[in-house]
Amino acid sequence: MNKNNKSWLFGAIAITSIIVISLFLAPANNQLNSGSTYSRAPDGYGAWYNFMLKKNVAIQRWEKPFTDLLDSQQINSSVTLLQVNSKLENPRISPQVKNWVKQGNILVILGINKKPTEANFTTLHDTKVGKVKIETRRRAIKLEPKKDKILLGDRYGIIVWEKQLNKGKIIQATTQNLAANAYQDITGNYEFLAQLVTQNQQPILVDEYIHGYKEKEIIEKEVGTNLINYLVKTPLFPVFIQGLIILVILIFAQNRRFAKPIKLSAPIIDNSQAYIQALATVLEKAESREFILETIGKKEKIKLQNKLGLGKIPLDDKILIDAWIQQTGQPSTELEKLFKIQSQKQKITESELVTWLDKWQQILSVT
Fold this sequence. Notes:
Blueprint: H1 3-24, H2 26-33, H3 46-54, E1 59-62, H4 66-72, E2 80-89, H5 95-102, E3 106-112, E4 122-127, E5 130-135, E6 148-154, E7 157-165, E8 168-173, H6 187-198, E9 204-207, H7 216-225, H8 227-233, H9 237-253, H10 271-286, H11 289-308, H12 317-328, H13 333-344, H14 350-366
Parallel strand pairs: 1-9, 2-3, 2-9, 3-8
Antiparallel strand pairs: 4-5, 6-7, 7-8
Helix pairs in contact: 1-9, 7-8, 10-14, 11-12, 11-14, 13-14
C-alpha cells in the first residue's frame, strides 16, 4: 500500500470514528444539557436566567446534590428549587423531599411525562401575565381535587398544576420548555415561570446538578469514589473520547505500530542502468561523444584486462580478443565491434553511444 492510499485509509477511519462517537455520545450530552441555564441552545434556559437577574430576583444556580441542600439550609428558612428535566419523565418524589416541601419550600418540576392528547401541538393560552405559548400535546387528565390546583390548561387537560403539602408546594408542568431560549421573544412564557417561582418571595435555586454541573468540592468528592462514572456523565466526555481516537489514529499514521518493527529490504540497484544513465548525463553536458567514446573505451579495456588476469598495462586488441575467446568460450564478434567503433573515431549519435556503453556492460558481466 503506497503512502497516498495509507493517508486515505487513515482519513476514512478518523471520519468514521468521529461520526460514530457523535451519533452515540453527542445526543446524550445534548439531552443532559437541555434545560440548563448555562446552555444557549434553543432548549436551554440561559436567557430566562438572565431575565430573572435583570429583575433583581434572588436567584442562583445550585450545583450540589439535593441532600446537600437539606444539610446547608438554615432552620426556618425556605427556598424555591427549580428543576428542568433534560428529558420527559415521571420523577419519584421521595418521603424526604415531601418532608422538605412541607416545611414551606417550593419544588418546581418542568417536564412531567404524560400521555399525548388530541390537542394541537402548538397552543396559545391567555394568562394574567400575557399569552403563553405551549408546544406539546401532553396533558395531565386526573388530579386530586382537594390537593391539586390547575394553573394552566385547556379542554384537553392540564399543563401546569400545583399540589399543596402543608406549608409548601410542588408545582409540575408537562413541558420542559416553558421558558426555554426559543421563547425569549414571548414575554408571557418568561413572566409566567417567573410568577411560579416567586410567589412566596423566597430565594430561588436552579438545579444544575441534574445537568452535570458540579462545584469543585463535589467533583473532588465524587472523583475520589468513581472517576469513570464522573467522566461518563460530564459534558466533556464525548470530546475526550474523540480526542483519544484521533490520537490513536495519528500514532498509526506516523507508522508507530504496536508490534515488532518490520525490517525493510535494501532496494536492488541496477548498476548497468545507473552507469549508462550517469554517462548519458555527462554526455549531454559535455556535447562531445567522441571524447567520451575514447576516454570510456580505454577504461573499459583496462577493466576487461583485469577480469581476464592480464594486468593493468594496456595491451593490443588482438591479445584481448584471443584471451576472451580462450577464457569464455564465446565468439568475439561483439567485442571486436566495440574495439572497431572506438578505433574509427567517427561521430556517432547519442543512441549509438548508449548502445555501445550497454554492450560493454554485457561483455564485462560475462567475464
